[in-house]
Structures are given as C-alpha cells and as structure tokens.
Design goal:
The complex is a heterodimer of chains A (117) and B (113). Helices cover 0% and strands 49% of the residues of chain A. By secondary structure, chain A is mostly beta strands. In chain A, the strands form 2 sheets. In chain A, strands 2, 4, 5, 6, 9, 10 and 11 form a 7-stranded mixed β-sheet that branches. A 4-stranded antiparallel β-sheet of chain A has the order 1-3-8-7, with no helix packed on it. In chain A, a hairpin with a 6-residue loop joins β4 (31-37) and β5 (44-50). Chain A is globular and about 40 Å long. In chain A, 37% of the residues are buried. By secondary structure, chain B is mainly β. Helix content of chain B is 0%, strand content 52%. The chains are: A mainly beta (117), B mainly beta (113).
Chain lengths: 117, 113
Amino acid sequence: DSGVTQTPKHLITATGQRVTLRCSPRSGDLSVYWYQQSLDQGLQFLIQYYNGEERAKGNILERFSAQQFPDLHSELNLSSLELGDSALYFCASSAEVVGSGADYGYTFGSGTRLTVV
Amino acid sequence: AQTVTQSQPEMSVQEAETVTLSCTYDTSENNYYLFWYKQPPSRQMILVIRQEAYKQQNATENRFSVNFQKAAKSFSLKISDSQLGDTAMYFCAFMNRDDKIIFGKGTRLHILP
C-alpha cells in the first residue's frame, strides 16, 4: 500500500456521461497530481494542486476539471465522455515542494481504470 | 520545455543478465531531479531509483544503479542480476523546480527464463 488511495479502481460508463474520480493523498502530502495513461502510452500530466490551490495545468481537456478539498483529498471530474477518454487515471502525491530533503518525488496510487463504451 | 527521451521501446534479456536502459533529457535548468519508475503488469507505478542533479555520485538501490552524465544529459538505468519480477515497463522521469514530473514514453523490458 503506497498510502495514496484512489477510488474507484474500475469504472465503466457510456459516452456522454460524467464521472468523478477520487484521490486521497499520502498522509502529510500537500500536493496532488493527476495523470492520464492511455493504452500502452506514457503518462500525460493533467493538473496539480497544492494545499487546495491549482498550481500547474498540463494537457487537460476543457471537459475535465479537478479540485482539492480542505482535507486535501482531490477529485477529477470528467464530463461528456468520449471513447478516447478510456484510460488509466493516476493520482500521485508528494510532500513539500522541491528542496524538502530526501523524500522528493511522487507516490502513486494504484489508478482508476476508466472504460467508456 | 523539458523533454525526456527513451530510445528503446522494448528490450529482452535472459534472467541473471545485466541490462541497461537508456534515457536522455533536455533542460536549461541546473538543479533538477531524475527518476526511474517501474510499471509491472499490475499497472502500479513504483519508484525504482532517484538522483539529484547536484550530486555527482550515482545513485544505487540494491540491484539497480544509474549512470548519470549531467553534461551529456543522460540518465541510464542498470539492472544487475535481472530477475523475472523485473519484467515491466520502465519510465524515466524528470522534475525541476516547479515540482512537475515529466515522463518519457517508456521501455518495455522482458526478462526471459
């Protein structure tokens, strides 16, 4: 168990629908990151939150949105789903920003596999 | 913009052999961090090893070691005495001051019995 919890593990939904993916970061981590991994592809950065605030945005579609709540858990909302949105969605968390010491880098959750049919 | 390039899409080696996975990156930063992540068939992302750019000494973690060449912007991963459990996708990754990790496209490694 990495300490980062993602729910649900699997999700099957129809095109045009909306889903919410949830992530609880490792205890003490303030930053949450969302990545999308399509079949046999690398990880594409979507968005980062730090202590409730959006910090960086990557290749995130306008149909997608995210937020981080006061208890630091985060949700990724995907709407008007298309077949091409089928992917593995990872959440990762990290401690303080770069420079905090030996514990740098991300801890990943086990991912949510989204299938759009 | 920073980029990470893994030139070997797929590799296969016999069990117990040593294998080296290549990675190059491009950045204008002087201080940054480099990582190798492993993604086995379970799809979990597992941190294998990490390196701080300002440290000249190459990082090692048991059978895993890196060859970090800062001037050449090269960060290769060496796996010694490879085991069947090392079969996985390996991603090289870069992180700079903005704390965002950029991943390469990965190298699929097969360890053959």
